[in-house]
Amino acid sequence: MNFNQEKLPNWLKRRADVTPDRIALEFEDKAYTFIDLHLRVLETAGRLSGQGMKKGDRVALLIGSHPDSVIIIHACFYVGLEIVMLNSRLTNKELIWQIRDAQPGWILTEAAFTLKAEELGEKIPNVPVFFKEELNRLEKVPNFQALDEFSLQDTATIMYTSGTSGKPKGVIQTYGNHWWSAVGSVLNLGLREEDCWLCSVPIFHISGFSILMRNVIYGIRVILLESFKEKEVNQAIKERSVTIVSVVTAMLNRMIAELQDENYPESFRCMLLGGGPAPLHLLEECIQRGIPVYQTYGMTETSSQIVTLAPEYSINKIGSAGKPLFPSQLKIEVEGREAVPGEAGEIAVAGPNVTPGYLNRKEETVQAIRNGWLFTGDIGYLDEEGFLYVIDRRSDLIISGGENVYPAEIEAVLAKHPAIFEAGVTGMEDEKWGKVPVAFVVLKPGAALSEADAIAHCRELLASYKVPKKILFCSELPRNSSNKLLRRELKEILENKL
Amino acid sequence: MNFNQEKLPNWLKRRADVTPDRIALEFEDKAYTFIDLHLRVLETAGRLSGQGMKKGDRVALLIGSHPDSVIIIHACFYVGLEIVMLNSRLTNKELIWQIRDAQPGWILTEAAFTLKAEELGEKIPNVPVFFKEELNRLEKVPNFQALDEFSLQDTATIMYTSGTSGKPKGVIQTYGNHWWSAVGSVLNLGLREEDCWLCSVPIFHISGFSILMRNVIYGIRVILLESFKEKEVNQAIKERSVTIVSVVTAMLNRMIAELQDENYPESFRCMLLGGGPAPLHLLEECIQRGIPVYQTYGMTETSSQIVTLAPEYSINKIGSAGKPLFPSQLKIEVEGREAVPGEAGEIAVAGPNVTPGYLNRKEETVQAIRNGWLFTGDIGYLDEEGFLYVIDRRSDLIISGGENVYPAEIEAVLAKHPAIFEAGVTGMEDEKWGKVPVAFVVLKPGAALSEADAIAHCRELLASYKVPKKILFCSELPRNSSNKLLRRELKEILENKL
Predict the structure, then answer these.
(1) Does domain B175-394 have CATH number 3.40.50.12780?
(2) Could you tell me which residue ranges the AMP-dependent synthetase/ligase domain spans (chains A, B) (predicted)?
(3) Number of Cβ within a 10 Å radius of residue B122
(4) Residue A16: its chain B contacts at CB < 8 A?
(5) pLDDT band at A3 (very low <50, low <70, confident <90, very high)
(6) Do B5 and A352 touch (CB under 8 A)?
(7) Among A129, A103, A105, residue whose Cα is nearest residue A52
(8) In chain A, which end has fewer C-beta atoms inside a 10 angstrom radius, N or C?
(9) Which of residues 19-48 of B touch A (CB under 8 A)?
């Protein structure tokens, strides 16, 4: 009788059956109902199937935020393909690494990424590259049958995240992970017929992707923006009946600045603020202006939110990320024991939205997930009433404009330069991006290097948001007795310097 | 890694942690927050545990609709007991049959049922009877530990239902069944912070019990009434910010009569109408008066709703029970094949809210649940767009001269007559036709009507084989505790009369 608990009807297909005529998606001046979307997805899925793609195969997507991408994602689900969501801001070196690791059978991309895609095609000749613009010319399977059901244990998506080591790991997200994430969120935020979630965060990140999942699971309208522009987001909230927006601190900052003295309409009910601890003054300003901020904590491994502050606590517990969503659990560990209230330690989470593990990384999986608990590496504490306060992400994580930047990855790139002996990276406060990376560099004896050259070197190998904004040359890096780099001290040196 | 999908945190305990200070329950002039409820439940669970009750044991509850019962139910969950919910309106003969079938270790009841309980104690001496009024005098386990998690596969409740055979069967409802029922409902009806569900249906039936589950899973306020009184229900809707009420046709009839020319407030957003096909004229009156009726179809075996009409179709698809809730599925079968649109057949349903089977009834279970589909025995059809129209419960089907006659259809026609308040139809043996329909009619106060006039009215609106051959006037119709018309009893009355 396990049939019942292991499978669910295909989400979009079911949605197109239950509420076909509701608006599903708006993009620029176009609108798509759920039945529109379903029919387009069916068409696309038939063509993917015509290329020999079948259930259990893996495809990498290098696509932007627009309706075609939404259609392609669901088409992959209709066929039963595992999707590797590639971050289009990465350099080709980074993308190639991920593709070689995930070994997809195909790369599906779009004309906007032609240059990138052509190089990928050259470097990884065994993985065919398709352009979405050419999909219509592809052969279709005559009687394509979409999956009627999704097995909750099956892999839906793989998203890469770097972690402390600096070596990216593919996080496996099952259909069950996405489903339970949506259910956990709805039991906290509620659901109204008139709900409309604005998506201006990248859909290749879980923050944006999870909005597309809620779209079909809840049957709500989603407004998709190609990228974040504060003016456009504010306009959509004011004029297009948006009720919920997902943001990170840097976005919220810019939205409030652009808003000036105006207010959001009463119908706007949730500013879901993720992506790391938010400065208190910003939260206070939001309260004063009546902006309904819900602080939240989540990551790729938890398929978006796992801890969110319930509305009744937005004032009394300002600065807290809240309590675990209904189906999930949370604890703080210090040296193998549970921390007492107020004591900081490693944040561990559990629940049906937590990843089963990392692709091809048994050891890292076993290390991160113990007895069903995911040890996040993030530092926080619970207050007397069990509210989570996140102190810092993984000690050294730099969150820059909502993107995770891992110092170790930048350090490794810098160290590749023939003139550089070693490098240490830390985050520096930045008005626009929240934080930006800054590098400390020790040169090899007798070597010479300019800041501009070091930056140019990084630019070749790293997505632009990871490139250090400043290079500080020094004679040695602060290290502890076991020679571990003390990034915390880099931060202090930096603060003293500025 | 299955840990994640098989277990959820203890619902009330989690709710008391996440939103402790919200009002959970109101009864008469008393109100309980979730933390209040949790602390009382913990106390009671400790005493049950003190009697030797432990996880996996079974207890039968013979209790009314009041806060103590809510506390006892959750206390059983805290210990991990399987609950047999006994219908307090049954005769002792019926109760004894059920208790012997379910073999609970204990019966827990209350002073109001002393007479019943004493006889049960005599007839089934091996099952000890406890009174809730005496619980406080019982020994408590010193350091009682409530279950932290519920396994979704575990049995939560057993409710007896007669089914077509007339022999009661214990329907097993797992924690998973109750959870998914609540989730399926929320994805259709939505969820608002200010939601308040009024429960005036018996909590020993799934209609009432499921409200108690939504209470803790959603974290919403529930107003509990000891029994259905139309004046009290209307008053609660008008004055106590009720947003959702579960009703059956007879209740709705009486509520509308009592409401007279008044209206419900705007905030009242859902009249969830279950318990069998509703007469069209009643639905039309509700539309005219702006009462937001959601027709629904469900049963003990589906842990309440499984098919519900989405709000946008309340007018266009009037009379339909709607489409399956998001995680569930529906089909109509005729002689082993799927029916075509418009063709009536047996309603089959599947989904994670469907019972794993009947207690101690392997054969009936295998017969009813095939390949994950529950064959309900009810008759209905799907229209071209897949909306379910429930024609009748199979047991009530009258086959007259080879033609299928569905009582509900005739009842609806009779109820359209201005002098008729409500009607019930059953079959009578007939030499010529095998069976013929006979109607029981309740007139409106002060109205007068002859048998000939009533028959003439039907003849205008129905094919001749559907016209009742006899009209019996009466002051009320036999209904069960959830106000469902008992056509079986009509049959008995008829046979005694003839």
Answers:
(1) yes
(2) 13-359
(3) 10
(4) none
(5) very low
(6) yes
(7) A105
(8) C
(9) 19, 21-22
A221 touches chain B (CB under 8 A): no
Under 8 Å between Cβ of A193 and A182: no
CA distance B261 to B264: 10
Nearest Cα neighbor of A122 from A104, A96, A103, A97 is A96
Hey, are the CB atoms on B191 and A191 less than 8 Å from each other? yes
pLDDT at A393: 64
Helix and strand totals (H; E) in chain B: 15, 29
| Model pLDDT, residue B1 | 31
Please report, as a single letter, which amino acid is at residue A143: N
- Token pair, residue B16, equals 């008391």
Contact B385, B374 (CB under 8 A): no
Contacts with B4 from chain A: Cβ below 8 Å: 176, 350-352, 354, 356, 372
- What is the CATH code for A3-388? 3.40.50.12780
Nearest to A217 among B1, B15, B187 (CB): B187
A152 contacts in B (CB within 8 Å)? 5
pLDDT for res B394: 65
**Which of residues 179 through 218 in chain B touch A, CB cutoff 8 A?**
180, 183, 186-188, 190-193, 217-218
Same fold, A3-388 and A398-497: no
Mean pLDDT of chain B: 91
Name the residue ranges covered by the structural domains of chain B. Answer: 3-151, 175-394, 397-497
Residues in chain A with CB shorter than 8 Å from the CB of B352 are 4-5, 8
Confidence class of residue A192 from pLDDT cuts 50, 70 and 90? Answer: very high
Cβ <8 Å between A1 and B187: no
* Nearest-by-Cβ selection for B218 from A6, A187, A328: A187
Tokens, residue B295: 């027709």
Q: Give the model's pLDDT for residue A484.
A: 62
Interval A65-108: pLDDT, tens: 999 999 999 999 999 999 999 999 899 988 999 999 999 999 99
Choose among A326, A310, A307: nearest CA to A318: A310
Residue A334 identity (one-letter amino acid): V
Residues of chain B under the 70 pLDDT cut: 1-5, 162-167, 311, 393-395, 402, 404, 498
| DSSP codes of every residue in A19-58 | STTSEEEEETTEEEEHHHHHHHHHHHHHHHHHTT--TT-E
pLDDT (0 to 100) of residue A166:
60
Is 3.40.50.150 the CATH number for B3-151?
Answer: no
Q: Which CATH architecture has domain A398-497?
A: 2-Layer Sandwich (3.30)
Mind telling me how many Å the CA of A490 is from chain B's nearest CA?
39
- The dihedral region occupied by B306, where left means phi > 0, alpha psi between -120 and 50, and beta the remainder, is alpha
Sequence length of chain B is 498
Q: What ipTM was predicted for this assembly?
A: 0.84
> Could you read off the pLDDT of A393-444 as tens digits, one per residue?
665 778 888 888 888 788 888 988 999 988 899 999 888 888 899 999 999 8
Position A395 scores a pLDDT of: 56
Tens of pLDDT, residues A281-328? 888 899 999 999 999 999 999 999 999 997 678 888 988 999 999 999
In angstroms, the CA B244 to CA B227 distance is 17
Residue A498 — pLDDT band, cuts 50, 70, 90? Answer: low
CATH number for the domain running over B397-497:
3.30.300.30
The predicted structure's pLDDT at residue A4 = 39
Give the separation between CA B357 and CA B367, rounded to whole angstroms.
10
- Rounded to a whole number of angstroms, the distance from the CA of A427 to the nearest CA of chain B is 34
- Count Cα atoms within 13 angstroms, Cβ side, for A413: 25
Average pLDDT over residues A38-63: 97
Flag if A190 and B193 touch (Cβ within 8 Å).
yes
Residue of A nearest to B324 (CA): A18
